[in-house]
Specification:
The chain is an alpha+beta fold. It has nine helices and five strands. It folds into two domains: 164 residues, GAF domain (Beta-Lactamase, 2-Layer Sandwich); 52 residues, Arc Repressor Mutant, subunit A. A five-stranded antiparallel sheet has the order 2-1-5-4-3, with helices on both faces. It is globular, with a radius of gyration of 17 Å.
């Protein structure tokens, strides 16, 4: 792990004072950085809505996203366990965890993942969500890697609520609900871009992220414009 990249990641995850701060962008940055820096090949994150129901909010790839959705559909898997317990959930070999997660484990192995660590997004005893880290080899992250992953997750959680401590519970719920609504627009925009530009959804999502970074735009705002037809998808720079 490059020390400089780790430091940069903490700065990015903690920098929520800028006007362009967006929860979905922050969560996506968290999953992307974990895959880049840690010894994992996929990451997926669930955030709880105001009714305490988990929703898929960020993922490093379409494969990771589908596994998160699978857990929600079957009410089974490490991300749900980490959210409900508020504790780290780890499985070093998913090929032998059928008793623990009889439906999730075979699906994860089929997707090419053999290990998983799920970290809660917690603050002062409250759990806002959880993040799965998937590996293609049957062994867990090292203690140092896990500590770094949890630190990234904790900083992100604090960043979501730190500058809103003076707001009441209703306002915080509205913020989280907006983040989940934005994710729907992002998924729709990704599908539109993939279809019109004849690319897979991972390539389409990467293109949207690249355009946002280049023009300092929020991912949710660009996605909403694409869905509304206000942006010509064929004109997006590739």
């Amino acid at each position: 792990m490059a020390e400089r990249r780790v430091t940069e990641t903490f700065v990015v995850l903690a920098d929520t004072l800028a006007e362009s701060f967006d929860v979905i962008d922050l969560l996506q940055e968290l999953t992307d950085r974990c895959v880049e820096i840690l010894d994992v090949q996929g990451a997926g994150l669930m955030l709880a809505d105001p009714g305490a129901s988990l929703q898929v909010s960020a993922s490093s790839s379409q494969g990771a996203r589908l596994l998160e959705l699978f857990q929600l559909q079957h009410d089974e898997g490490p991300c749900l366990d980490a959210y409900r317990s508020g504790r780290l959930v780890t499985e070093s070999d998913l090929r032998t965890s059928g008793q623990r997660w009889p439906r999730f484990s075979p699906r994860a192995v089929e997707a090419g993942y053999l290990s998983v660590q799920s970290l809660p997004m917690r603050r002062h005893g409250e759990v806002l969500g959880a993040m799965n880290l998937f590996g293609v080899r049957p062994y867990p992250l090292t203690p140092d890697q896990l500590a770094l992953a949890q630190a990234f997750t904790d900083v992100t959680t604090i960043s979501i609520v730190q500058d809103r401590l003076t707001r009441d519970r209703t306002e915080l719920n509205e913020q989280l609900e907006h983040a989940l609504t934005s994710r729907v627009a992002i998924e729709r925009a990704t599908g539109i871009v993939a279809g019109r530009l004849t690319m897979d959804v991972d390539q389409a999502f990467a293109l949207l992220r690249s355009v946002c970074r280049r023009h300092n735009r929020r991912l949710s705002a660009l996605s909403e414009d694409i869905v509304a037809g206000a942006v010509d998808v064929l004109s997006l720079p590739r």
